[in-house]
TrEMBL record:
The lineage of its organism: Bacteria, Pseudomonadati, Pseudomonadota, Alphaproteobacteria, Hyphomicrobiales. This is LIV-I protein F. The keyword Nucleotide-binding applies. One of its GO terms (biological process) is L-amino acid transport. Residues 29-259 form the ABC transporter domain. CDD domains: ABC_TM1139_LivF_branched (cd03224). It comes from the Bacteria. GO terms for molecular function: ATP binding; ATP hydrolysis activity; branched-chain amino acid transmembrane transporter activity. Pfam families: ABC_tran. Belongs to the ABC transporter superfamily. Residues 1-23 are annotated as: Disordered. Signal peptide: none annotated. SUPFAM superfamilies: P-loop containing nucleoside triphosphate hydrolases.
Length: 259
């Protein structure tokens, strides 16, 4: 297990994109000493981690640990406000960008509320995601991988089930040319049978080699999907290591995840 004592060894100085991840391979994504606030509330308190290209990282912790806030800071959303730290993706400094600029660099966020556009069909939601460059998967390729969406292409998207809306939320991101997929609670509120279907879709995303950060209260499901895990507690990193280490360590899971 890699603890805080040695977590920051080998990191680049501010202003220089980190070049190595913990395993010695080039870091495709790096978050360096992130500090973010909602107003005066100090939420993200010095979070740092790297991801290799193609890895899936589970960002875990109890409710209120700062997981979603970290994800939003990486995506360069207006809230929380990132007041210190750096975010690098494929040698590009995301921390200097606004959210729409980060999206153009390949950051794709699937928020917990999914943000399906009411009044538009499934097809129209997908088409709208491809109005601006860069374009990713064709809509027909999306339908091949999401046959249920193909069946409902003419349906008002907001009238679909929660699981189907989650499929559409992921599909809209794949319709863009993404380099980093950010998933916030993809299993939230879904029946177990639908969770299994979403898991199958995410396994397919993993097979495609898309670099991914997944925030999920269903930690066991996320750990089985992920290569690595970072655990947050009170806005700080308390563990950074392999997903298997967390699965094999009941004391760690009980202390920080209550499972």
């Amino acid at each position: 297990m890699t603890l805080l004592d040695d977590q920051f060894s080998g990191r680049s100085a501010p202003g220089v994109p980190p070049r190595k991840s913990q395993g010695g391979a080039p870091a495709f994504f790096s978050a360096w000493d992130l500090h973010a606030y909602y107003g005066e509330s100090y939420i993200v308190q010095g979070v740092s981690f790297d991801i290799r290209e193609g890895e899936i990282l589970a960002l875990l912790g109890r409710n209120g640990a700062g997981k979603t806030s970290t994800l939003r800071a990486i995506a360069r959303m207006e809230d929380p406000q990132l007041k210190h730290g750096e975010v690098w993706l494929d040698h590009k400094p995301l921390h200097t960008m606004k959210s729409f600029q980060a999206a153009r660099q390949g950051v794709g966020l699937v928020p917990e509320d999914r943000r399906i556009i009411p009044g538009l069909t499934v097809q129209e939601n997908l088409e709208l995601s491809q109005i601006a460059e860069p374009v990713g998967w064709s809509i027909e390729r999306i339908y091949e991988h999401f046959p249920r969406l193909a069946e409902r292409r003419s349906q008002d998207a907001i009238t679909m089930s929660g699981g189907e809306q989650q499929m559409l939320a992921v599909a809209r991101i794949l319709a863009r040319d993404i380099k980093l997929l950010l998933l916030d609670e993809p299993y939230e509120g879904l029946a177990p049978v639908i969770v299994q279907e979403i898991e199958r879709i995410l396994e397919g995303v993993k097979d495609l080699g898309i670099t991914t950060i997944i925030v999920e209260q269903n930690a066991i499901a996320a750990l089985h999907l992920a290569d690595r895990a970072v655990i947050l507690d009170m806005g700080e990193v308390v563990f950074d290591g392999s997903a298997q280490e967390v699965l094999d360590n009941p004391q760690l899971r009980q202390e920080y995840l209550a499972i």
